[in-house]
Amino acid sequence: MTSTPAHPASKTLVLLVDDQPIVAAALQRLLASFADIELIATQDADTGFSLALSRRPDVILQDLMMPGVDGMEQIVRIRANPDLADTPLVVLSSHADAATKEQCFGAGANDYLVKLPDALELVARIRYHARMGRAQRDRDRAMRSLADSQSELVRRNAEVDAANRRLFEMNEALGQETQEHRERFAEVGALGAKLGRAQDLDEVMDQALRLARSFTDADAGSIWMVGTGGIRLVYTQNDTLEAALGSGERLPLADVVLPRDSSSIAGYVASTGKLLRIDDVHHLDNSLPYRFRPQIDVQTGYHTRSMLVAPLRDGRDEVIGVLQLINARGRGKVPVDVAVFTAGDEAALTLFASMASLALERARLVRSVILRTIATAEMRDPTETGAHVQRVAECSVAMYDRWSALHNVGDSERHRRRDELRIAAMLHDVGKVAIPDRILKKPGKLDDAEYRHMQTHSVLGGRLFADASTPYDEAAYEVAIHHHDKWDGTGYPGGVDAAMIAAMPVEIESNPVAKPLRGLEIPLFARIVAVADVYDALTSKRAYKDPWTAEQVTEFLRKESGRHFDPELVDIALELEGYFRSVRLRFP
Ligand code: C2E
Ligand code: SIN
Ligand code: SIN
Ligand code: FE
Ligand code: FE
Fold it and tell me: Is pTM, for the whole model, over 0.90?
C-alpha cells in the first residue's frame, strides 16, 4: 500500500532518470526559480527505481534511450510495482514519433515531452501531474476505507443477527413458566430483531427507547452513554411533554453529564452494572447510595415517579450505557398515578437490553467508520468538522420527520428512510477530498475558476457511491451529488446521470454540463440537506465569513424560499429553528 511520502506535502518532489548529465543540469537550472519544486536526479535506471521506492516522488521524469535497462522496460517495471503503480510518470525523449509515443502510453506513461521542454510548460505539467496523483491517492484512500467498512458491516450484521437468535432461544427456554411470559418474550424477541436492522447510532437509540417504552408502557425514557467524563444523556423521549408541544416543535436535547458513580440512579446502574426497579424516586430508602436529582423535572415541569433502569453492555460485557424507563402507565389496568413497573417488565427489559446493546455496538461502529471516512476529508478541509456533519445530519432528520408527518409516511418507512438519510447527510461533502488544498484552504473569497473547481466536490462525492448496491449508497449518492441543486433550477450540477459520471476523467476542474434540475426533480433527501447545510454554514464561522445572526439566517431562508430552497422545507426549518439551536449546543 502507498505509504506517506517522506517529503513535505507542500513541496513537489520530482525524480529525473536520464543517462545524460547535461539534461539533469539543464532541468536543475530550469526549475531553480520554482520554490515549490524539488528535483532529484540519477543517470542509472536501477538507482532511479530504488530512489522512486525510497523517496516516493510526486512525479517521475523518465528518459527513453538509456544503456542497460532502457526507458520502456523501466516504465513497465514501475507500473508493475504496487507502491509505484499510481505515481505519475512523464516520458522525456528526444524523438517525437507517433509509434514511440503510443508505445509509452501503452506501457502506462501519463505524458510525453520532447527534450528540452520550455520551463513554464514543464512546470505546468509537473504541477498538474503532482496534483492529479495526490487527488488519486486521496480518492483511493476514501474508497478503500468505504469498501473496508462495507465488508466489516456486512460481517457485523450477520453477527448481530446470530447473537440475537441465540439470546432469544436462551430466554425462551428460561421463560416457559407462564403463558404471559412466553407471549412477552416472543414480542420482545421480535422487537429486538427489528432493531437489528437499523445502522445509524441515533436511529438505534431512538428506536430502542421507543420499543422498550412500548412493551413496558412507560411514559418517558432516556439513554445515557458512558464516556470519558462520566455518563452523558444522549436521548430522551417523553409522551407527556411531547403532547404539550406545538405542531413541528421538538423537545430540546438537554446536555447533561453525571459522574459515573453511585450518587445518581443512572450513575449507579452504569457503575455497578445492576438493574434498578424503583416504585417512587421521591421515597428512596436513606440507606441507598443514590439520590434522585430533581433538576431536570424542575426545568421541564415533569413529575418523575417510577423507574426501570437497565445497563447496556458491549460484546465484552462492559457497560456502555444505561436505558432508563420512566413512569409506568399501568397498561390501562392500574390508575396512572399508582402504576409501577413489574417483575415481568424487568425480565422483558433484561432480554431487550441485551439485544439493543448489540445493535448499539454495531451502530457505534458504523458511526466511527463514517467519522473516519470524513476525517480523510477533514484533514484537508478545516470547515468540515465532525460536529458540522453531525449537526447537518441531526437537523436533516428532524426536517424529514416533520415532512413525513405532513405526507403521512408510515412509521416503519420513516424509520428506515431516516436511518439512510442520517448517514447520507454526514457524507454530503465527502467529495471535498479531491479538491486541491490551495482552493479548499484558501482563507479569502474564491475567484470564478476556483469556485467552479470547488463545485466539482458534489459530483466527485457522488462518484464514490456510483456503484450503489445498498439503499445507504443510493441515499449517499443522491445527497452528495444534488445537495447544491436549487429549487428554481439555478444550482449545480443539475441532471448529471450515471453515464456522465462514468465518462468523467479522474481529475476535473469544472462540472459536466447537464440540464438544470428543479423543484421535485431534485431528490427529497438532497432538498432537505440543502437547507440543513446552508443553515449550518451561515450560522458557523468560516475562513471566508463570520457567523450570521439568527435574524439574518431566518430572513435569508424566507427570501430563498422557492428560489434556492423547497418552500415546504423552508416552512419546516423555520418551525424547527429552536430545535436547530439546541443541536448546535449538543455538537459545538
Ligand atoms: P460551505 O462553507 O459548507 O457552504 C455551503 C453552502 O452554504 C454554500 O454552497 C452556500 O450555498 C451557502 N453559504 C455559505 N456561506 C455563505 C455566505 O456567506 N453567503 C451566502 N449567501 N451563502 C453562503 P456553495 O456556495 O456552493 O459553496 C460550497 C463550498 O465551497 C462551501 O461549503 C465552501 O467550502 C466553499 N466556498 C464557497 N465560497 C467560498 C469562498 O468564497 N471562499 C472559500 N475559501 N471557500 C468557499
Ligand atoms: C438519575 O438517573 O439519577 C438522573 C435522573 C434525571 O436527572 O433525569
Ligand atoms: C422520497 O421519499 O424520496 C420521494 C419523495 C419526494 O422526492 O418528494
Ligand atoms: Fe457541499
Ligand atoms: Fe457542508
Answer: no
